[in-house]
Amino acid sequence: ERIARHRAQAASGTPHPLATYEELFVRFIDAMGYENISGVEIAAVHKRVTRSGVRNRIPEPWLALRLAIVLRIDQEIRYRAGQPLRFNSLVRATDYNRAIRGASKSQHRVGTARDRVLVGGSIRDLVRLDAQLATTVLGFTPEQQRVLQQWRRRHGLDERAFTRSIYGEPFSMRGVGWTGMSVRVDGGIGQYRTFVHSDNRGVRARWNG
DSSP letter string over 118-136? Predict the structure, then answer.
């Protein structure tokens, strides 16, 4: 019900000109129409604070674009599992990533990684579902394509939004795997004791944490 309410607001038209960036971000995620993923939920993950007081941040537009695309993969996982997903970590600001001792070149810093758990399922179940999706191509509806392109136009994002990196080396558009109409699932799966990491880095990687 909450997701439906926010989705209706997202589809209601042009946001108020004084809307905060966080409100625009929430509307953007909701407008993607992922049945089991809400903008409020995703925003909340990005407002977490470490014990030392370092706060994460809502991802800036080029990172938000990548995240909105790869969340299509998590919605597919949700469909196949028939059980809710709970996200523990998504995009990480540089100082926040450093504070939690994340890898300096973590995929979380470039907007393709998600750490999550399958509520009511096991870590092994989620790893299996992630592996099943490897090399799968997932389509976007015409409305989702419109929403993604609208976000790009609103924030002046061109093809460089897919090669931009915050750790020096260029990022490959192939890493995201987005064609405009679909996304190819291709990346890393990390199995940890309490969560599963998945990312769309463009090359296969598997590990136990």
Answer: ETTS-HHHHHHHHHHHTT-
